[in-house]
Amino acid sequence: MATVTRHPRADRNQHLRIVEAILFATAVPVDVAHLRTFLPEGTDVAGLLADLKANYANRGVNLVEVAGKWLFRTSDDLSYLLRREKVEERKLSKAAMETLAIIAYHQAVTRAEIEDIRGVAISKGTLDQLLEIGWVRMRGRRKTPGRPVTYGTTEAFLNHFGLNEVGDLPGLQELKGAGLLDANLPPGFDIPMPRSSDDLLPDEEPLDGTETDQLPLEMHLPEASEEPGSE
Description:
Structural class: alpha+beta
Number of helices: 8
Mean pLDDT: 80
Radius of gyration: 23 Å
């Protein structure tokens, strides 16, 4: 009696279909660890994702990695078809945008350090706004007198701006090339390399649970005006 052996490629194709089905069914990005729970132990999940990404490279939706997780997203050249124009009642002020940029590039950073970099004080509403949107989070406390809270960006920040990690933020030359920085910058001017790790720095310690009183209770939008020396 002949023995019929299942070709290993058939198993791989089935695993590829499983991964595809999970990614289509989920409403949120999925990490590799979650996908592994649906597949036999030892399955090459990274290889499956690479194959699936290649399969969808030239289609209407693409498989992309954002913040270390995977999701299907409309192809960039077709996104205009699904764009819906609407009135946005809340928008970031110039002070909030500058504060967000400083936090993204300099994290972990304290409020005093943000003000030192900007050269002007920031209002409580500015940080409240970024915290409520979910793009900024409290990371820990600096091991200095007063133990000030340190701030960093979140996964929601990466997802909104289409970044896999903060290290993908544009550098000095990219910002100049996009016209976002003056071509004639002061000597020695540089853009810091953002840290990709969420681990606390040696000069940070964990939050102690007393920070809840610093979370925003309500939005302060819009900021009617920026007083000199207090933004």
